[in-house]
Write a structure and sequence with these properties.
heterodimer, A: 119 residues, hypothetical protein PF0899 fold, B: 222 residues, alpha/beta, Rossmann fold, 7-stranded parallel sheet, 10 helices, 8 strands, binds guanosine-5'-diphosphate, binds magnesium ion, binds zinc ion
Chain lengths: 119, 222
């Protein structure tokens, strides 16, 4: 499953971040997931407990924030929601009707922050 | 109650892999080995295309094949019949290879003296698109039965590929496949993609594809 690979990378990245910040235990992690990635929040939650066992994240809560998929129209320059402007499987600019676009947001999988419990 | 202190991280989880991939490319450059990452849905024709490509290039280029597709020990055996070396990687059910797994595979395989190594990636169009394997170039195969609207459904995959092969053009009329529409959709996602309509069954279109590959391998290894 794709999400397992993603979660293993989250653990690795979080471990490095914890080390850099001299943190021994993480209690919570906020993950930002773009709407246009193949990562499905439900499945990330599903494999979370197994992936964090015996790591610095053991027992940590996972909070997922979804990031909207926004496209910039290559013709008129306006920004619009990709998923709300799909027409026959293809985003179409609501302002000028162009089908030429590039992604502005929605492809990221980022650790936004971690919550640590200080003794 | 304990107080929770929040630390901002703002780091992409692909960062580590991207760095590993960059390092692997540097190593491949030094060893003069070109790594091609070949991706597609299951059954699009990766193995068949590879067999024909190998037959065309094996006299001039030293080739090796790393099989990562699930249940593809058969594929590794087929490749072996062409006389080039191949290895079956065990991905443990993972849906993609990352740069670290690729590097380990190359080491186990022993690729220093090879000019071209082809990685037959796991058959799916979502996960491999998100993980840079460290390959020098990415190629994907879209086969005619999958439909000319496939690029719209997998925009990321099409946008990261340097070459897109449209395979099984021998059955284009049966599937009512609109080649121009498919090309246009690929170009909209990725203006730089080189598109090769081919048939791995009849060999049609393979000259152009083999030329592209030969040119890229030579440029990387000089
Ligand atoms: N008609 C036709 N069939 C093809 C072509 N290329 C591959 N196939 C068939 O498609 C099936 C899957 O091919 P294979 O190379 O194993 O796909 P892979 O799973 O991507 O490695 C096999 O039955 C092939 O014979 C082609 O160009 N035309
Ligand atoms: Mg195969
Ligand atoms: Zn517009």
């Amino acid at each position: 499953m794709h999400e397992m690979g993603v979660v293993l990378n989250i653990v690795r990245t979080a471990q490095e971040a914890a080390k850099a910040n001299h943190v021994a235990k993480i209690g919570r992690l906020t993950l930002q997931v773009g709407e246009l990635t193949g990562v499905i929040p439900k499945y990330v939650h599903a494999c979370w407990p197994a992936a964090i066992e015996h790591t610095i994240l053991e027992g940590a809560n996972l909070v997922i924030e979804e990031i909207e998929g926004i496209a910039t129209c290559k013709d008129c320059g306006c920004d619009y929601s990709v998923l709300e402007n799909m027409n026959a499987d293809q985003p179409v600019c609501p302002t000028c009707g162009s089908k030429q676009w590039k992604v502005k947001t929605g492809r990221e999988v980022m650790i936004k922050d971690i919550g640590v419990i200080d003794d | 109650m304990d107080k929770i202190r929040v630390i901002d991280i703002k780091r992409s989880i692909f960062d580590n892999n991207d760095k590993d991939a960059e390092k692997l490319r540097e190593q491949l450059k030094q060893e003069k080995t070109f790594l091609l990452n070949l991706m597609s849905s299951p059954g699009s024709g990766k193995t068949t295309t590879l067999m024909r490509t190998i037959e065309m290039l094996k006299e001039e280029i030293k080739i090796g094949v790393m099989e990562a597709d699930i249940d593809s020990s058969v594929d590794a055996e087929k490749i072996a019949t062409t006389g080039v070396k191949s290895i079956q990687l065990h991905t443990g059910g993972m849906c993609h290879l990352d740069a670290d797994m690729t590097r380990q595979g190359l080491t186990e395989f022993g690729t220093q003296d090879m000019d071209l190594v082809v990685l037959e990636n796991v058959g799916n169009l979502v996960c491999p698109a998100e993980f840079d394997t460290g390959a020098v170039k990415n190629a994907m195969i879209l086969s005619v039965p999958e439909g000319d609207d496939k690029p719209l459904k997998y925009p990321l995959m099409f946008s990261i590929c340097d070459a897109v092969l449209i395979n099984k053009i021998d059955v284009m009329s049966v599937f009512d496949f609109d080649l121009e529409a498919a090309k246009e959709r690929i170009k909209a996602l990725n203006p730089k993609a080189e598109i090769f309509p081919v048939s791995a069954r009849t060999g049609e279109g393979f000259e152009a594809w083999a030329d592209w590959l030969r040119k890229n391998v030579t440029a990387w290894n000089e």
